[in-house]
Design brief:
single chain, mainly alpha
Length: 141
């Protein structure tokens, strides 16, 4: 594998791995403790936005489904640009949520969730720039 290929594909793998890892929390795959932590985070978010936590499940599961789709598309060579575009949009939402609603440090994570969102944003931006022509072609530009 050449250095050029590593530079091209490494951001895809990093973004996909981080996005897939967060599914452990959002879907409770990693156990009840992970699920409860995610529920608390999304409850705080929906209370901050709407004044109540009624939309916690919708936001948590919906975000998880979109992140799963983004990670699959990022790893699919013909659709990596679309996955990266979705990843950029999702990470902007995550970063804005951290900055304005739930805080940079959540629980005792030392800002780990925020840092992971920034890493995914940077990786997805790199993939999006690499695949710009395919994304524009997909949208008919």
């Amino acid at each position: 594998m050449t250095l050029k290929n590593i530079i091209k594909y490494l951001p895809r793998f990093i973004a996909a791995i981080i996005l897939l890892e967060t599914l452990l929390f959002k879907f409770g795959i990693g156990g009840e403790a992970f699920l409860n932590e995610s529920k608390a985070l999304f409850t705080n978010l929906t209370i901050s936005i709407f004044g109540h936590g009624d939309f916690e499940t919708f936001f948590r599961v919906g975000t998880g489904v979109l992140e799963l789709i983004a990670s699959i598309l990022i790893l699919w060579p013909k659709r990596a640009g679309l996955g990266a575009l979705l990843g950029v949009i999702l990470m902007f939402g995550a970063i804005l949520s951290h900055l304005f609603f739930i805080g940079v440090i959540v629980g005792n994570d030392g800002g780990q969730l925020m840092v992971m969102a920034l890493i995914v944003l940077m990786c997805c931006t790199k993939v999006l720039l690499d695949e710009k022509s395919k994304v524009l072609a997909f949208f008919g530009k």
